[in-house]
TrEMBL record:
SUPFAM superfamilies: Protein kinase-like (PK-like). InterPro entries: AGP_Transferase, Aminoglycoside_PTrfase, Kinase-like_dom_sf. This is Phosphotransferase. Residues 40-245 form the Aminoglycoside phosphotransferase domain. It comes from Streptomyces litchfieldiae.
Amino acid sequence: MTASPPRIPDLAGARAVARRHGVADAEVAPAAAQGIAGFVYLLGEDLVLKVARPEPEFAGDLRKEALVIPHARALGVRTPEVVEYAEADDGFDGAPYLVQRRAHGRGADGEPGAAAYRELGRELALLHAAPIPDAVRAGVPADTVGDPGPGIQQLAAQGELSPGLADWLTGWLAQLAQAAPTDPRPVLIHGDIAAGNLLLDARTGALSALLDWGDAAVADPATEFAKVPPRSLPHVLDGYLDALPGPADGRQWAARVLWHHLVWAVFRLPTPPEPGWVHWSAQPANRLLELLRAYAEGLPEPWAGWMRSQRLP
């Protein structure tokens, strides 16, 4: 989104919620970092309040969080406990709100280290490997990815790509699809494992918590990893594949994830810039250049060998 976030509402509603949880008015303050989907308040040292922004889709995101987080915690995923959820609260002009335990740590400045990314992979394996409860499945969208070919040809027709390059790209994507297993089992994904949603231990840099479940969906598990910079994928996938039950083929997983990165990168090119955002994929060319960076700077083995083996058609 390019628009500036709405001004955070006054503290009256947040203070009313805080009092019900034994937190004094003086201990209520807006969080320094505000989210896209919700206004965030700190209620003392132990609680966080998130209120959905006015747009209808943001209420749905908060509703999803209230549904998915207890399931993730039951699996052992490190994410803060839901203390209270309320629909259509009068104190917030009818918007729903969510109160959670406050996870302490620091945000990931830039990108987390290799160890934290491996821990993230293990957390995601817990989530993806588990059966999805019926109530959770009913409350989150199914995210399906179609054939990118027509969209690539449309970009060529618009002059965004040359026709020959569009054909070459379509061929490479087909080659990657053949290297991956067909029809992967849909799983519950977090949907936004960007660095901004990771909390790290202030002393060790270890992963403390995975935050913000508003983009949760039922999808191909490889979709999850499109939010990780390509040069950091080996660390996340190493932790992930080690924690999955049963054998896992790293080459197949790398092909699946690279397919998603390429598709997202190409379709981001003709979209407007986001000058207010600084995360790794914020600007139109960032994703494509990050893929080039991963190839140019070299990945650790065995991933580097796999990347070199992917001869382009």
